[in-house]
Amino acid sequence: MKDIFAQGCLYEETLKRFDEAANILNVNKGIYKILRHPYREVTVYIPVQMDNGEIEVFIGFRVQHSIARGPAKGGIRYSKDVTLDEVRALAAWMTMKCAIVNIPFGGGKGGVICEPSELSRSELEKITRRYTASLIEIWGPEIDVPAPDVNTNEQVMAWIMDTYSMHARHTVTSVVTGKPLNLGGSRGRREATGRGVVIVLEQAAQTYGISIKNSTAVVQGFGNVGSVAAQLLDQIGCKVIAVSDIYGGIYNEKGLDIDDVIKYVKANKKVVGYPKADAIDNKKILELPCDFLIPAAIENQITLENANKIKAKIIVEGANGPTTIEADKILNERGIIVVPDILANAGGVTVSYFEWVQDRQGFFWTEEQVNDALNHIMVSSYQEVLALSKQYKVPLRTASYMLGLQRVLECIETRGIYA
Ligand code: NAD
Hints:
- The protein is an alpha/beta fold and 419 residues long.
- It is built from 13 helices and 12 strands.
- The strands form 2 sheets. Strands 9-8-7-6-10-11-12 form a 7-stranded mixed sheet, with helices on both faces. A 5-stranded mixed sheet has the order 1-2-4-3-5.
- The protein is globular and about 55 Å long.
């Protein structure tokens, strides 16, 4: 049986990436030691009476990796594959992400081991409310602000907000982001991660001399991030030739009509079977010749096994951790540009920050204001990373870690160590 508490390769890989950036920056070793460890990790056991009357106990985690720059911030994932190691790595990436886009948050992440597709709505609600109640002391607008991630959505965020508010005895919308619009959500939040991916993709295309018009893209994962990225790419004249989800992929070399695919998925819950395309294997999709490859599903998709077969010119990581360290080396050697997750998918947390600000002010922005502010942050963050990458002659990933690490370490050093 898998040890869900064991330190595993994902956090170790994260530390290797931290170490590489720290060495180049020649950071204060003592201060850096602090950042190699999470601030705190909590495990909760969640008893739920299932619809059939039986009691099940689910396991949930919340890791606050850093609160040096502000409240911990990061999504909650529901999946049978959740482990503490994965949540720890995801929390550390959030610390980097928030620092790279320079918003006043630390990094956190949560997860519950469960299979949402096998749970009823009422079971999901019970898990969510009990998980929230168990973590209530360590969540809050000033402490730790969760958000959606894989298999959690606006409805789950609404249940979290409601549970927290019932305990607080007043409505606290700013405890969680990614909420429905009528409960303090932000315009543009649902699309923000995919939109951010496309903003940095356009920047990278400019840097490396690829014209978007008539370019081609492949998107793995057709959920929140992947479907929005595909739709926006289609709108700006990039041909999306293949998309996939957990059940399989579809391919049309002339380009897919993404609005039509989205309609199909709404009705059929999967891309497989879409009539105006051929079927393609989920892994094979990654090896298609294209200008832009957007992994937007889960971790560890581009590995030692397939890195040599990737034919894209630029990879823009919509998902967290889709490329392993070994694969990264091969991609670098082959001259394939990788815009890393901690920069490329930071649009989501950026608009989550806007949502938190709006909730705290009780003053809501137009979609145009949100998108303009997002665009400004994504473009300037990309340019900062690119400048570091040129200055130190390192890949964009290393430069992103350098920028994030530098900002967090400066805060830890200035704050000092209490007691
Ligand atoms: P989602 O649950 O909405 O969609 C995930 C998609 O990936 C679904 O289409 C699913 O079928 C597909 N998928 C799952 N396993 C797969 C596999 N083995 N092969 C191919 N497809 C597979 O999730 P999301 O919110 O779109 O998140 C996707 C990724 O983006 C995750 O890595 C997440 O951590 C990251 N991310 C999400 C956000 C956000 O705002 N939602 C922000 C930053 C990063």
